[in-house]
Design goal:
CATH architecture of the largest domain: Orthogonal Bundle
Order of helices and strands: HHHHHH
Largest sheet: none
Number of helices: 6
CATH topology of the largest domain: Helicase, Ruva Protein, domain 3
Radius of gyration: 18 Å
Length: about 120
């Protein structure tokens, strides 16, 4: 089962679809729903049959950020958030994405500091 099918099934509590997975019975499917529903609420999955397309500008910025060491998922999310503001050039989109990525890493660092 693909992520595009699995995550909505867990979010909706669709046990019939989950028990079709080999090795997953009713109890396991119920447990998956109970334990993962809230955690998957923040996961963004592209709709099946709705391919995500990027402009050349977005692809270039994504490539630059990945080459700087950011992971692909974070980069995709940052570009999507930054793209809402409709940047018109490479530097503007790169700067906006870096601010988003920097803000996310600052939150992680702050949380890690509190846990110590």
């Amino acid at each position: 089962m693909s992520l595009e099918e699995l995550i909505p099934a867990i979010r909706k509590g669709d046990l019939a679809q989950l028990v079709r997975i080999p090795g997953v019975g009713r109890k396991t499917a119920e447990r998956m729903v109970v334990e993962l529903r809230d955690k998957l609420a923040v996961v963004d999955v592209p709709q099946a049959g709705k391919p995500t397309t990027r402009s050349q500008l977005e692809s270039d910025v994504a490539s630059a950020l990945v080459n700087l060491g950011y992971d692909t998922r974070s980069v995709d999310g940052a570009i999507e958030k930054a793209g809402v503001k409709a940047p018109s050039d490479f530097e503007e989109l790169l700067r906006a994405a870096l601010q988003i990525l920097g803000g996310a890493s600052m939150k992680k660092t702050a949380r890690a500091g509190r846990d110590e």
